[in-house]
Amino acid sequence: MSTPSQLDRLASLDTNTVSDALDFLNLPGATFGIRPLWDCAKIVGRASTIQLGPKTDVKPSVHLITPVVAQIQADDRILVIAGGIDGISCWGDILANAAAAKKVRGSVIDGVSRDIEGSESIGYPVFGRGVTMISARNRVVQVDSGKPVKFASVVVNEDDYVIADRCGTVFVPANRIEEVLDLGERIARRQDGMVQAVRAGRSVEEVMHDKEFEAINSKEAE
Description:
24% strand, 222 residues, alpha/beta
C-alpha cells in the first residue's frame, strides 16, 4: 500500500493547525494578511520564489514573472511573489492564464493583484493583500527568482512548502516538513478529540486548559 505524499498530508491540514505546529517547534512561517482575493479553494505546493522591486530606469524590460512561468515544468508549483508595492499590481489575468497552462497551483503575493475577475474566471487561485487597477508596467520589475525572499516578514526559500486557505498563508521550511507534518497531524487529532469532548458535555474550561494543549506535544498523550 502506498503512503500519502508530504503534499497530500499537508493538504489534509489547514493553516491554523500548521501555524500551531510551527509555534510548538519555534519556527517562523505563519503570515498575516495574505488571504484569497476571490473565493478560491485551498492551495498546497512547493514555492517558486520571485523577488520584485521598483523600476528605476526607462529601458523596456521583460514583463515581471513571465520568465519564471515560462520555465516551470513541475505540477507542484506555487508562485511566491515578494516585494509588492502598495497599490501597484504584481499579478493579472494574462499571467494567470499562462500559469494555469503550466499547471501552477496558484500565486501568493506580498502585494496586490489587478484583473482578479480574470483569475477567477479560469479558477486560478490568488492570495494577496488586496486588489487594484494600477498596472505594474514601467513601475515594478522582477529583480530575482529562485532565491530566498522575505515575504510578510518570513524568509521563504525555493522549494519550501506552502499552504494557503481562507485564514491565510503559511510557509514550512523544506528541511523541517516531516516534523511539522507529524506534529500537525497530532494536533489535528487532539483538537478533534477536544471538539467531541465539548459536544459530549465535558467542561470547555477543562478541555481547553493549557495542560491539554501542552499534552499535544507528547505522542504518549494521544
